[in-house]
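Re: export button greyed out
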Amino acid sequence: MTSWRIRAYVGILALRHLGMATLLILDRARFDNLASLRVLFSIANPTLWAVALLLIGGLAVVALVVGKWFEGVGRTTCVLSVGMSLAWASSIGLAHVESSSSSLLLFIIFLSMGLKDLIVSSVPFVGPEEILDSETS
Amino acid sequence: MDSGTVAVIVAVISLAGTATAAYLSSRAQKVGATVQEKAALFEGYDEFVSHLRARIDELEGQLGNMINRAQEAAEECDKCRAALQAARADYYNLTRITRAMRDQMGLPSDFGLLPIELVQDEQNKAVASSEESTTDQ
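Workaround output, generated via the alternate export path:
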């Protein structure tokens, strides 16, 4: 049993990762020139990051489609998303340390997204009130 | 910082975040299972409550009947008490009348016998004295 709240969150997570992967693949030239992502792309090829993002987004879609796997696959997706978001945040932060031309706003956004995924991972996917709500409705 | 160091820092942050998320996620999953288990205890709770309410209504009905019967008994008791009071008053009046009649008839005031019995007693005494006088002669 899962709540609509967490299903919506996993859906948004899928949208985020698949959207980022699509942009990385389709509009790679724009990303190559970004100073903020210089460190990130020095660690791994943009295509590899895109593949990783696609995998996480795909897992989120699988979690949403296959109901009985939702808890396990959804949690795995959230955990991987934490790692991915923190990798991006730390890379952007290090790029800012090396040269201030990097955007701190991106660092804050990715860090907060990673921490948000961490919080979502650390709580049960369904609360007692949601169980009672589903029983009464 | 050389690219190797940067990669190690990013990897460490990312892996630390992933590991923390995985740990918290597994703990939350256990908590979620416990929550669902506890929530299952509430299944049938509404039925139980409605059963209790029906039983309370039944008991309240019985209590209402008992109160009505007690009220009726109390009313009967009042009637009996009033009748007893009236009988006592009658008895008192009769006693006074009897005493007055006995005084008028010159009979001793003996409360141990009813007037009719006293008359009978006087007759018995008269018969006995006449028999005695006859024997003496």
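The radius of gyration of chain B is 51 Å. The button fix ships in the next patch.
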